[in-house]
Write a structure and sequence with these properties.
By secondary structure, this protein is α/β, with parallel strands linked by helices. Helices cover about 40% and strands about 15% of the residues. Bound molecules: S-adenosylmethionine. S-adenosylmethionine binds near residues 26, 31, 77 and 98.
């Protein structure tokens, strides 16, 4: 198993302490969490969340050596506030969100995340989610499918692809879908795209985001995460595409400003108070050596904020 993305950078960002409380809201295989527990020994504690029971099984094995210092719960990070109150953890010192899919999920063909292996069109993080990628591909009207590919995949040829999918329905497998997309783009003069990226990459990204309501989930968790931090506590978010990163960036910008009135307004009427400061103005990206060792890390962007100490009125 390789190292999780931006591993050292996350440990450095969250500055684990021996008596600290931490949350890994996307525990995956537990790689980052292992580092946080190790660095907060002997008594730091960590709550790990994931919606994928297979991920939790891996994390449980990986973190077994830490005993009760690691608490793992199968839950969406959109319920972060609720999970913390169940545990009675008033405020925490560090929260990590490592968004998107894990290596285990991509490398398990039957999960349907990869277009390189023949598998049903699934793409769910949470096996109890009633919607699979096949439902969208086979049931959405053409216009809605094109809009989805454009919005969540930033796919400029969304209309051509949607038309080709409708003509080929019903589609059952990842490879069938990837071929339909590749043929549609080849017919319109665009085969393998820039930088050798497979033509179906954007379509698969769009379907995965829609199936898992990923952008709505990120929007829902960010305010809960900031609210859960103790003064001086930090929130670190790793995103893997520009749609996610934009949400994180805009939220951090807004929450680190004392006034969010429109710039043309001469006098502040919003009464907004900054709750965090941005620890880094520009996102941290992996070093060349990490990208070489793990090409999937190439699009990772890490943003970090620190909760402000309450100001006296
Ligand atoms: C990139 S992986 C995390 C890898 C992890 N940092 C590690 O070190 O192994 C993202 C994880 O987030 C999980 N996930 C996705 N959406 C979620 C949600 N709404 N709530 C909780 N976990 C979620 C996925 O199932 C996946 O296991």
């Amino acid at each position: 198993m390789h190292r999780p993305v931006l591993y050292q950078e996350i440990i450095h960002a969250l500055q684990p302490r021996r008596d600290g409380l931490y949350v890994d809201a996307t525990i995956g295989a537990g790689g980052h969490a292992w580092g946080l527990l190790q660095a907060s020994a002997p008594s730091g504690r960590l709550l790990g969340l994931d919606v994928d029971p297979q991920a939790l099984k891996l994390a449980q094995l990986k973190l077994a050596e830490f005993g009760e210092r690691a608490v793992l719960v199968r839950a969406s990070y959109t319920t972060l506030g609720e999970q913390l109150s169940v545990l009675g953890w008033g405020a925490v010192d560090g929260i990590l969100l490592d968004l998107g899919m894990s290596s285990m999920q991509v490398d398990t063909p039957e999960r349907g995340f990869s277009f390189l292996a023949e598998a049903p069109l699934d793409m769910r993080f949470d096996p109890d989610n009633p919607m699979r990628a096949a439902d969208l591909v086979n049931e959405l009207p053409e216009g809605e499918l094109a809009d989805l590919l454009f919005k969540y995949g930033e796919e400029r040829r969304s209309r051509q692809i949607a038309r080709a999918i409708l003509a080929a329905r019903p589609l059952q497998t990842t490879v069938e879908l990837a071929q339909v997309v590749a043929n549609a783009l080849r017919a319109s003069g665009r085969g393998r795209g820039r930088r050798g990226i497979h033509p179906a990459t954007r379509t698969f990204q769009a379907l995965r985001i829609a199936v898992n309501h990923e952008l709505e989930a990120v929007e829902a968790v960010l305010p809960q995460a900031v609210a859960a931090l103790a003064p001086g506590g930090r929130l670190a978010v790793i995103s893997f595409h520009s749609l996610e990163d934009r949400i994180v960036k805009q939220f951090f910008r807004r929450e680190s400003r004392d006034c969010i009135c429109p710039p043309e307004q001469p006098v502040c009427t919003c009464g907004h108070k900054a709750s965090v400061r941005e620890v880094v103005r520009h996102p941290i990206v992996p070093q060349a050596a990490e990208v070489e060792a793990n090409p999937r890390s190439r699009s990772a962007r890490l943003r970090i904020v620190e909760k402000l100490t309450d100001q006296l009125a």
